[in-house]
Amino acid sequence: MSGPRPEERIYEYLRHKKKFPNVWCPGCGIGIVMHALVRAIDRIGLAKDNVALISGIGCTGRMPVYVDFNTMHTTHGRALAFATGLKMAKPQMNVIVVMGDGDALAIGGNHFIHAARRNIHLTTIVVNNQSYGMTGGQHSPTTPTHMLASTAPYGNVEQPFSICNLAKAAGAAFVARSTVYHATELDRLIELAILKRGFSVVEAVSYCHTTYGRMNKLGTAVDMMRALKERSVTQEAASKLDEAEREDRIVRGVLVDRDCPEYTDLYAEVIRKTKAAAKPLGSPRP
Amino acid sequence: MEQDAAAASGEAAPGLQPRRRVHRGRVRIFTNWCKGCGLCVAFCPQKVFEFNGGGRASVAHPDKCIACDWCRLHCPDLAITVAHVDEEETGGPA
Amino acid sequence: MQGNEACAEGALAAGCRFFAGYPITPSSEIGEILARRLPAVDGKFIQMEDEIASVAAVIGASVGGVKALTATSGPGFSLMQENIGYAAMTEIPCVIVDVQRTGPSTGLPTSPAQGDVMQARWGTHGDHPIIVLCPSSVREVFDLTVQAFNFSEKYRTPVIVLMDEVVGHMREKVELPAPEAIEIVHRLGTDVPPEWYSPYDDTPTDVPPLVSFGEGFRYHITGLMHDRAGFPTERRDEIDDWLRRVFGKISRHVDDISMTVQEGVEEANTLVLAYGATARSAHQAVKLARARRRKVGFLKLLTLWPFPESLVEHLADGVRSVVVPEMNLGQLALEVERVVGRRKVRRVNRADGEMVTPRQILEAIEEG
After folding, report:
1. C13: domain CATH number?
2. Which of A175, C61, C306, C365 is the residue whose CA sits 20 to 30 A from B68?
3. What pLDDT is recorded for position A6?
4. What is the mean pLDDT of residues C129-151?
């Protein structure tokens, strides 16, 4: 019997001309997210030709090269803008965007809120390790106050964003969070996000034991993975905690799931109406 | 007849423990892809893995695997596969 | 027809079906007209949140197989540089229109200038080739916008159309070519099966075939230095190959890319070299000078970059002086001086938001 064994089918989605093992540090959660993404795509049954994976800059940005889809590694913070253009040119394509917390929320913050506002059908996965890992552990918009970072040697004085609150406020149709410890929940949320018509955000909470973790003495990858398990709660469990206790927790699950008009659908309607008009506004001058 | 009916409903036939379906897994590691992060070694509930001499994970106790899939799903290098093998076990005499 | 309108019409005639942009004087009309015109031809318009996102969306659309345009002015052009570099590095066709206004910074939003000439060549970091076209009349705006799309597809490169506020906002009577008469170039596709396709392969023309996403060829595009398969590399031999091919792509085809208008250059004592709105004043000055029996040649550059070194060197050989008028403090003049020698070049400059006048240019011609 030829062909891959069932447990090896997932490897059909990797680019075997690319060198493995992957570039990430031993124990890094980004590989876990990549595997979850591929499982979700496999379960839905998307054709590889009809999937585009677009990333920004940073450790997370290195993901697309490893997977056998239409892939783009773009400029820092701008992945959603590239994705918007591709989605408008090819509305039938499943366009998935993967970014780190700094890429998506700092330099990419403007594109993040506007893509959410437009509710354009893009699936956005933000791998949040509360820092800029690749460049050495600088603080990011999600670094908790008081934590150390290479650019906050005396402790971070800033307040962090909540990625999910921001996405919700900006108009995203689907917002969910999980962690790299909860790998099966993660792939389930990614599946829901891909299928949801509109702008979907999945925050995948991870860790960087190499830079940020080391500076803050958070231990090895095993230690930081264990901490994700211990610090996270379901929404149901979180609702039973008082506010002070909840502050410190990572709340998992689907946080937002609403039906809003999707951007490419709305624009398709513009095209339809324009072409149907007796004297189209856009006809050329005589 | 009585024994068959009992077996079909899962109840113990007199004199025997009930049959159980047990999950077993056949674990394989692509050692070339493993970076020795230790997640599988630390988190496997059955302690199937141990570090080998080269600092990479190895399947030290394959028979203990219950196919929970934690290792496969959490290996950052996608270096582990787990084939699910359903087995039936019959208990011994009461 | 207005210059900006001719730009929009030229883009449509060239097959542009996607515009992403941000409002900025004096280019906003281009986006506004395309917002009206595109849906009627199954095209798409989007106003992005800033100019950085505009170029990104244009590149994304082009990767998706749709010819795409953005338009801006100086301040927006500055913002666009990083992503223009991305398009140059990844060799994705796209057209960027910069309707220049007086700078630097906010400058004079409603006054012309030609202060972005060097920025158009070198605005983005790192060594990269680029094509920059510069119209001086409404008809030329139409023609050069079409040509910009054709070059971008043919050479897999971003192309900048450098207009200025005068050319963008002026109105002239034009006769546009019939659609059948317009030559349209599409990106070179491939006929090899997907397993053999390399997005950055060597070819005799130095331009690799480009297949759009979603056509069955799955490949990787990255702004990192990459090999022929598109994967990141740090290998010296692969980097050298890339540099040689990508620079050769433009430099070996200057004859095809460089467009000029030449009048009376054969027996001239003086050569006037001009571009954009200033070329209009220059042409007038040349006429006046000839009326005074001076032997003056007129060289209008429609292609600013790559700079036509051999042509300029050749034409300058027989003349005593080369007059270079510009609405800046001397930018293209630097190229002319480099090629011809500083002593031969007479700069005529102003950067105060006013056009260089024929009289100013005539004075420089008569200086000898």
Report:
1. 3.40.50.970
2. A175
3. 75
4. 98
The mean per-residue pLDDT over the stretch A128-146 comes to: 97
Tens-digit pLDDT profile for residues C312-338: 999 999 999 999 999 999 999 999 999
Give the distance from residue A3's alpha carbon to the nearest chain C alpha carbon, in angstroms.
Answer: 18
Same domain, C18 and C149: yes
User: What residues of chain B lie within 8 A of the CB of A26, using their CB?
Assistant: 35-38, 76
The predicted model gives C343-366 an average pLDDT of 97
CA–CA gap between residue A89 and residue C62 (Å, rounded): 8
Q: Among B81, B82, B84, B86, which would you mutate to test the A interface (most chain A Cβ atoms within 10 Å of its Cβ)?
A: B81
ipTM for the predicted complex: 0.97
Q: Which of A81, A275, A281 sits opposite C48 (nearest CB)?
A: A81
The domain in which residue C300 lies consists of 259-367
Q: How many domains does chain C have?
A: 2
Question: Rounded mean pLDDT of chain B?
Answer: 83
User: How is domain B21-89 classified at the CATH fold level?
Assistant: Alpha-Beta Plaits (3.30.70)
CA A213 to chain centroid, in Å, comes to 21
Count: domains in chain A: 1
Contacts of C95 by beta carbon, 8 Å cutoff, 6+ apart: C11, C16, C67, C68, C69, C70, C145, C148, C149, C152, C158, C159, C160, C161
The number of C-alpha atoms within 13 Å of A231 and in the hemisphere containing its C-beta is 17
